[in-house]
């Protein structure tokens, strides 16, 4: 907080340099003309009136004396010039709204527009250098033709004559305070407003950034009143004053909504009603500028009461909810709310002065509000950074826990696979080799049958082939392709067919990268073994062709021979071989196709979808 107050003090020193420098005006070197004569005239008056002059004291605002006079008032001021050896400086501090200046009957200055749309000369004090022959020894006369509208406090301010260097220093100080500081305020306000508009666009949920930017926009539009020297784009003073007052009320309403949102409240019905009031005031100012301008004080009262209620309410909220940014914002609003009372009394004509004080404190207000908003943003960023650190810590812990869990799951999965493979091996031994072995034992133990040696050898070979199939399908890696698993079967049967004088041809296509799994490969190999056994035992063929091919998403298996063939209608008389082949094809998701006729060989084939196999 000490740093904040140091910044605010430095800004106060900057915008109020008069407090830091020695007074330049000496009463002996300059003369301040405090009295004059005034006379009303019409808009097109080119010469001072002959009669109707009234003594007045400067600063003079003629709306109290002539409340309905819109037009021209001439002011006559006289002073004695001791010597004309040196030039004299002339300072006209305040004129509302436009004027022409005559010294000893000679025109030395005239505003661009002395009729509507009136120039706005009250913004900047004017300095003139008077010398001979314009300046006379003895009595000199200054005539000021002022054009204005009674509703907007027209009149003439202080006039100072004296040493040119001192008078010009007074003019520069007045211009700095009433004009340059206004530009500084506008620049700072636009910078802060633009910055927090960007923050709002990036963080829409923090709506108080957007309301602050909107309040800054309307405040800047209102503050143009203190900078521009003409009422453009309007063609009369009434329209300018009407829009200016409506902008003041709108800036107050948006600022009040900003304070509400900053305190964490959203009074949507109240906000909607106040915004509708602002739209009504702006519309009335555009549609009826004459009436809206003449009754601008209504808008000023609405805006001022809104400002006061919002600021006092926020200060009370700060006392109940103490926070650093709340204190900074409330502190930046405390001085302006007190000084604004003086400016309102001046605006309503209760006191007479050309010295509005709020301009001196507005930089403090802008910087204070900017600090509060920036402080809250910095706090939010720190919270986000701390949250990110905590979140990263939690993510790391969760990642570690998940890694350990996955390791355990992977170990369990490997154990399950091993157990499953062992169960599959047991089933294969039981269903295949065990069944064949049991049948062979039953045959050999039957006392009624005396098997031939050749029959015993054939039975043992079948048992051997069945055992080899199991070994071949369980000793390969699980992800080996189908071609590698078919190779041992092909090799054994090629030798067997060669010993039986049967030519065997094998076609294996498109299965190099195909993996079916141990159980399904075993079914396929048993199918081929059963089919080739039938060819070897029963076909009396000279040629057998085995084709295993992958066609897109299907796996086709085809076994053909040129043997004696058979009648498919009499398959029930040929033992259990053909039903076994059908069952194995069905387990692979296919239907066995049998093509055979006596004397024309036989063909066994099926086509299985890979989606059902893999």
Low-confidence stretches: 1-27
Question: Main sheet: which strands, in order across?
Answer: 3-2-5-11-8-9
How many discrete structural domains? 3
Could you say which overall geometry the principal axes of the C-alpha atoms support? rod-shaped
Helicity level: 40-55%
* β-strand number: 18
Count of alpha/pi helices:
14
Organism: Dyella humi
EC number: 2.7.13.3
Protein name: histidine kinase
Keywords: Kinase, Membrane, Signal, Transferase, Transmembrane, Transmembrane helix, Two-component regulatory system
Give an overview in words.
There is one protein chain. The chain is an alpha+beta fold and 614 residues long. Helix content is 55%, strand content 17%. The longest helix has 88 residues, at 358-445. Residues 1-27 have low confidence and may be disordered.
Give a short summary of the structure.
The protein is α+β, with helices and mostly antiparallel strands and 614 residues long. The chain has helices at 2-15, 164-202, 207-223, 237-262, 268-287, 289-294, 296-320, 324-347, 358-445, 453-475, 482-499, 518-539, 577-587, 610-613; strands at 30-33, 35-41, 54-57, 60-61, 71-81, 88-92, 95-96, 98-103, 106-110, 126-130, 138-148, 155-156, 159-162, 503-509, 543-551, 554-561, 593-596, 602-609.
What's the topology here?
Layout: H1 2-15, E1 30-33, E2 35-41, E3 54-57, E4 60-61, E5 71-81, E6 88-92, E7 95-96, E8 98-103, E9 106-110, E10 126-130, E11 138-148, E12 155-156, E13 159-162, H2 164-202, H3 207-223, H4 237-262, H5 268-287, H6 289-294, H7 296-320, H8 324-347, H9 358-445, H10 453-475, H11 482-499, E14 503-509, H12 518-539, E15 543-551, E16 554-561, H13 577-587, E17 593-596, E18 602-609, H14 610-613
Parallel strand pairs: 14-15
Antiparallel strand pairs: 1-13, 2-3, 2-5, 4-12, 5-11, 6-10, 6-13, 7-12, 8-9, 8-11, 15-16, 16-18, 17-18
Helix pairs in contact: 1-9, 2-3, 2-9, 3-4, 4-5, 4-7, 7-8, 8-9, 9-10, 10-12, 11-12, 12-13
